[in-house]
Amino acid sequence: MSSLLSSTTAAPVTSTVSSSAAAATTVASAAAATGSTAAVTTLTAVCVALALILVAMCLLDLPYFFRSLFSYVSATCFKKKLRATDTAVYSSVCLTSDLDVYLTHMNNARYLREIDLARIEFLLRTGIWRELRRRGGLIFTIANSVRYRRFVRTFSRYEIRTRIVYWDDVSIFFEFRFVSKADGFVRAIVYNRQQVVGCSADELMRTVVGGGGGDATEAAKTAADGAYHRPECPIEIHHWIQSNLMSSASLKAEIGDGDPL
């Protein structure tokens, strides 16, 4: 009788232990499955993000857009305002992404990329861009003239000195000087012609140089007082304009496209 009672009492205990072990195993399996699913989800998200970044880098020049954004933020938030007749200074360094096939100096094409960034800062700091957009206008590059004097070497620091040298009724002419910080030598000089679309370049500059802050009446008063004047066209810019006109005439005679540029 006592033996029977002992076996009867032990059976529920053994069953309870087995149930607890099974439950613990189930919980552990569920936790492992959940952890595995989370890891797979995270890995998938990372792979998708990397794929999107790769596609974006193939379709867009991301470094250029990021640097343009940096120039915009720097000019609007951190650097002091300038007059349109001032010279702006943009500092940079020749990195490995700027090199040509010799790996010793800046690629020739990079000079035009760098003046884009310097021009963004100049237009914002001088208020030209704000006045241009107020008038509903835009500005585009239609010609460049580059003279390379010495290499900008790998990892060398330089600055781009930007100023407006001339403007007429339709265009603004910029000068960009690449000056090495080590010796102050002008490594390259770029003349850039920006065509103003949607408004008069001369009226735009009259307002900005006149100091009207976007007020055309105040700018006209300043101009009447003699504070405003269009600079004389530098001789090299004059010959460059003539060269472009001759090139345009030659192309029109050759293919008859009728384009004034």
TrEMBL record:
CDD domains: 4HBT. It comes from the Eukaryota. Keywords: Membrane, Transmembrane, Transmembrane helix. The chain crosses the membrane at residues 42-62. It holds the Pfam family 4HBT_2. Gene3D superfamilies: Hotdog Thioesterase (3.10.129.10). Belongs to the THEM6 family. This is Protein THEM6.
